[in-house]
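Work Package 4 report. The design task specified in the project plan requires that, given a folded chain encoded as structure tokens, an amino acid be chosen for each position. We show below one input record used in the internal validation round.
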């Protein structure tokens, strides 16, 4: 006779079923990784895998279209007449000079300065991929997936930014850990890449201090480089943020959404992929919880590393909420720190969990999806915008951007000078000094500003990513470039003051004397 107690015993509760599912999934993943490692164990297969990763990286990097921040860095590096001018410009940017000096040196020997961007990324990126594939203490399947991850394949090594250099130094430090002098040299250079890499350099110094491996002359060099980097980016009194502050609640929600991308780097908006956007809404919470659970499972074997990782994430949170809103690409540095910590734990003989490998599988799949997006659609649509302005016969007219950064790529490609709405000066790259366009919070504010410029100067043309309602004769849309780039950039073109004579361009330069990016 079956009793109630027997029936309950035969039916596992929810927690037991969850554990059974977890164990079954872990077993399947373990078998899959073992099979993948067995395939890559053969020399021909391993060489083919390495070659495929490198070829994909080269194709992505060379086919990538630069965007605002990439063009801005190149223009500052090339168009500054002297190094003193460059150092002054960087006080409006917030980035140390090392990356700009690399671009300046490459551009000086290339037929087209724009080639410096992909060349710098390749010179740095190929050694990074080889370091991961040949030196990481993981199984071959794990190494391939790390190399194909969205972070490494695209964010770090396709986009050409100082982030590329900082990540390269982090992987070099992991690979050279047993060679303290080279490690300390890399650590000394890290603060010259970016503020967050300066924080990362402190992490590495603390780890070396715990191992009693201080190389004092190079430690002094690290302090000197850190102080110089901080001195080089001391803000100018009239510096203005590129981002409009929001409420603390909105900033907190946005930070969590961006952080979820570390668990699922599938950048999406609406019904289409879009770079610099968090995962689709239904998946964000699961991605964040899954990533946190994986980190906890992986780092619980080494409490100091767990605290180290948690404190770095806390620094990014405080920085994001109080100083500057970080982008997803900035937060991905935390993912690389996690990789380096697991690298060190593996070198120390600590085992990795299957959930670490599951995370690598997820970010590798997202990396391949991103690669497909990047190769099937252009990253940015400024090429089409510049061509449309020429085809409309408006290349020699007076143009203004709104917001301030809208014309950066067009200016870099076509040499078009843009006039600020709030100042009688022209520019082809942005100096982030005090601007009052942040005071324009609605269409009425914008119309007031447009009327003032028309009254002062006459008819001009406006380039904007925003759909502005037609209000003739004040403003009327004349063309647009649709949002088909992976970065989601849309360009709308308007004539402003259509019943007025053409404005005369202002010859004063907003950022002071500078060289053209290309000979005019």
């Amino acid at each position: 006779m079956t009793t109630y107690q027997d029936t309950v015993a035969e039916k596992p509760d929810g927690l037991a079923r969850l554990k059974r599912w977890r164990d079954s999934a872990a077993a399947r993943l373990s078998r899959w990784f073992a099979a993948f490692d067995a395939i890559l164990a053969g020399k021909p297969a391993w060489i083919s895998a390495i070659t495929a990763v490198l070829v994909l990286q080269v194709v992505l990097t060379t086919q990538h279209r630069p965007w605002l921040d990439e063009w801005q860095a190149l223009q500052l590096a090339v168009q500054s007449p002297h190094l003193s001018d460059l150092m002054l410009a960087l006080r409006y940017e917030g980035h140390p000079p090392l990356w700009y000096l690399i671009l300046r040196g490459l551009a000086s020997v290339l037929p087209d300065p724009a080639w410096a961007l992909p060349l710098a990324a390749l010179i740095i990126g190929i050694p990074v991929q080889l370091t991961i594939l040949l030196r990481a203490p993981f199984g071959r399947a794990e190494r391939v997936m790390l190399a194909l991850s969205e972070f490494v394949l695209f964010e770090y090594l396709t986009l050409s930014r100082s982030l590329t250099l900082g990540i390269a130094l982090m992987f070099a430090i992991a690979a050279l850990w047993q060679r303290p002098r080279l490690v300390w040299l890399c650590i000394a250079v890290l603060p010259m890449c970016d503020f967050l890499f300066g924080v990362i350099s402190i992490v590495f110094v603390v780890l070396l201090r715990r191992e009693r491996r201080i190389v004092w002359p190079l430690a002094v060099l690290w302090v000197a480089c850190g102080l110089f980097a901080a001195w080089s980016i001391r803000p100018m009194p009239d510096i203005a943020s590129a981002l409009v502050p929001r409420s603390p609640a909105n900033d907190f929600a946005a930070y969590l959404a961006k952080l979820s991308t570390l668990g699922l780097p599938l950048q999406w908006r609406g019904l289409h992929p879009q770079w610099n956007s968090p995962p689709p809404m239904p998946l964000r919470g699961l991605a964040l919880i899954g990533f946190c659970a994986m980190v906890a499972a992986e780092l619980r074997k080494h409490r100091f590393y767990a605290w180290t990782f948690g404190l770095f994430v806390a620094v990014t949170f405080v920085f994001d909420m109080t100083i500057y809103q970080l982008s997803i690409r900035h937060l991905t540095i935390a993912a690389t720190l996690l990789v380096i910590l697991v690298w060190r734990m593996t070198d120390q003989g600590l085992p990795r969990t299957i959930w670490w490998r599951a995370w690598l599988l997820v970010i590798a799949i997202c990396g391949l999806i991103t690669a497909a997006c990047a190769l099937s659609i252009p990253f940015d649509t400024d090429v089409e915008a510049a061509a449309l302005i020429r085809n409309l016969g408006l290349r020699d007219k007076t143009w203004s951007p709104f917001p301030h950064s809208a014309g950066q790529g067009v200016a870099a490609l076509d040499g078009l000078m843009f006039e600020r709405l709030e100042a009688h000066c022209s520019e082809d790259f942005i100096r982030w000094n005090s601007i009052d366009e942040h005071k324009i919070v609605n269409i009425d504010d914008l119309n007031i500003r447009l009327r003032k410029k028309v009254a002062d100067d006459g008819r001009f043309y406006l380039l904007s990513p925003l759909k502005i309602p037609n209000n003739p004769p004040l403003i009327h849309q004349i063309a647009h470039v649709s949002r088909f780039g992976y970065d989601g950039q849309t360009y709308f073109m308007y004539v402003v003051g259509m019943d007025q004579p053409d404005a005369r361009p202002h010859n004063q330069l907003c950022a002071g004397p500078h060289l053209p990016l290309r000979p005019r």
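The two ends are 96 Å apart (CA to CA). Validation will be extended to a larger panel in the next phase.
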